Amino acid sequence: MSRNIQYDKYNYFCYIGVFQDTDYEPISLILDTQTAIMLEKFYYNPHKLKSEVNAAITRFLLETINKDKVPGLAMQEACWDRALGSLNLPQFNRLELALNNINTWDRERIIKHSQSNGVPYNDFVTREKVTFTETMIPHLKSNPLLLGSYTIILKIHLLNYRKSKIDKFKLFREFIDFMNNKVSIFHAVEFSLAVDYFLGNSKKNDNAQSLLKFGSKDPLGAILTSCWDLFFLRFLQLSFMQNIGGILRPKLISRDDALINLAKYSYIHGLIEVNETPMPVVSFDHEDLDTTTLDYLDEIRTEIIKSTHIRSLSYLGDIEKLVGRITETARELEEELIGMIKQK
């Protein structure tokens, strides 16, 4: 296993680092959404958890007392209410209270709490279940950093409908042209996911499918979840290189098997400067590809590198105009995908 993947003794929480061959002691721990939710359950109802889950969470808290835990992104994802089109504030307040209080506990308090009936919470929290989403644009306006990823994964979902009918290289070519020319965005993680799905071996293809969540009854909701998964990994890598928000030497804490599998093949390889901004060079291990596919990917990578400057110019102009153009593209793709689903 790559050294950037380390499980706890219960095989419950995974610590994801940024380097392939070098482990390090983190100062900050970025919590993914599943992790934050499990900590909330532990805070309010530890007695209702399975004994092995209770033990794993207790150990995690004991071993990370002095770590800087970063739950903000997880709270955003967990508490976004599609029915409201905004954060569910009562739910957010309940989660925030749990995570903030847990961070103040010492070892004795953690152990005592693990054997208790939890902390009572009397405020009423409700959330309407949404079974089918017509658009995610309100969420993207609230979380604009997800916009590029959402638009790219929408395109992958649409291309998937033609995967069995078109040559894989032509299909991937259309994907690359969309990223480079239509939206002028290159996201390395999404690119790697597309390589695995359209060009990879069966193992990589299966993992890509689990991340992309094809076949959901709520496809736009599933795509947004995929975006969050990939964003956690991207945020980890950027935070390590740029110390975003005071985050130092971070690792990502996750229980998402598909995300963990992707992280096994994704690591920081170096650093470059784009428009005076340091950006990590991320390497991906696309193992077991045939020579024809590897040669094809080399040509694509060369093309992407040559177009870096052109893409970067789009970020030097009117950002609001750029965001508006990509948002419009996302909405067009949403309507196309919803239309195809309703025709089935």
Detailed description of the structure:
This protein is α/β, with parallel strands linked by helices. It has a domain of 154 residues. It has 15 helices and 9 strands. A hairpin with a 4-residue loop joins β5 and β6. The two termini are 42 Å apart. This is DUF3800 domain-containing protein. It comes from Paenibacillus terreus.
Structural class: alpha/beta
For the biggest β-sheet, the strand order reads 1-2-7-3-4
Are there runs of 5+ residues with pLDDT below 50, and where?
A: none
Number of helices: 15
Q: In one word, what is the shape?
A: globular
Give a short synopsis of this structure.
The protein has 15 helices and nine strands. It is of the alpha/beta class and 344 residues long.
Main traits of this protein?
single chain, 344 residues, alpha/beta, five-stranded mixed beta sheet, two-stranded antiparallel sheet, 15 helices, 9 strands
Layout of helices and strands:
Elements: E1 5-7, E2 14-16, E3 28-31, H1 33-44, H2 51-63, E4 68-70, H3 72-79, E5 80-81, E6 86-87, H4 89-102, H5 107-114, H6 137-142, H7 147-160, H8 168-182, H9 188-199, H10 202-212, H11 219-242, E7 251-254, H12 257-263, E8 266-274, E9 277-284, H13 291-306, H14 308-313, H15 319-343
Parallel strand pairs: 3-4, 3-7
Antiparallel strand pairs: 1-2, 2-7, 5-6, 8-9
Helix pairs in contact: 1-3, 1-4, 2-5, 3-4, 7-8, 7-11, 7-15, 8-9, 9-10, 10-12
